[in-house]
Fold this protein.
Amino acid sequence: MPVEIERKFLVRGDGWRALGTGMPYRQGYLSTTPERSVRVRLVRNKGYLTIKGLAVGVTRAEYEYEIPADEAGELLDKLCEQPLIEKTRYRVECNNLTWEIDEFAGDNAGLIVAEVELEKEHQAIALPDWIGQEVTGDPRYYNASLVSNPYSQWT
Amino acid sequence: MPVEIERKFLVRGDGWRALGTGMPYRQGYLSTTPERSVRVRLVRNKGYLTIKGLAVGVTRAEYEYEIPADEAGELLDKLCEQPLIEKTRYRVECNNLTWEIDEFAGDNAGLIVAEVELEKEHQAIALPDWIGQEVTGDPRYYNASLVSNPYSQWT
């Protein structure tokens, strides 16, 4: 079973901005339950369908399939739950780790999170100084949760 | 947008049985809402992921992608809503139309439905004498509905 082992953090300051370039991501959901989320994603001219299972600690089953970009666009516009998630993703290499930093737009503007994929659950990692509070496993920060409960509405 | 135009009927008698051979189908759902169902299907050594939108009359958006059979099996066993749908599908050619006849097992044993895919919405079709009541558009007969409300529990 393919799994992702991932930790997620809030981002503080702008020290990371000079370290990578951003790419616009559009994504939406056909299912947003934590037990079985189904995501459609469009990045430039590539479409993806991604299925994730329930997170157990930092580990989660993940199956990803590339699909035609035009069909990904149709699924996003016509079938996915609305609104869609719009964000810019920056890839930053730091201490032999690749950080993916998502700066959200739309109803989630103001939210910036950094994710790092690990090879094993208890891998020690060096945290850059622009890494803030850890939010791994907090369901509010799931992209699937941000559709119905966007950051702008958090109290 | 790829669409399926399909009519669905109950089946009466056994006159159809001699006309085709059956193949076992295992399928399950990652989403069962009528607006966006996501189906995983395993037929012999082929896996499929199929997304369907809301039915409008006899027409429904449908996107299908082949996926590795072993991953389809994992998705069915570990991520899909339970129980799975188990059925035998028979393909029967009749009057230049292909009928797909599903004989359900498990909690849906006793239910046999026939589907025919059309080229256009108002296509005239000749109904074989083993075709019974039309159930097109009746959500109880959606395979996705049969997971949570199986035929054996209908009153």
Observations:
- The two ends of chain B are 38 Å apart (CA to CA).
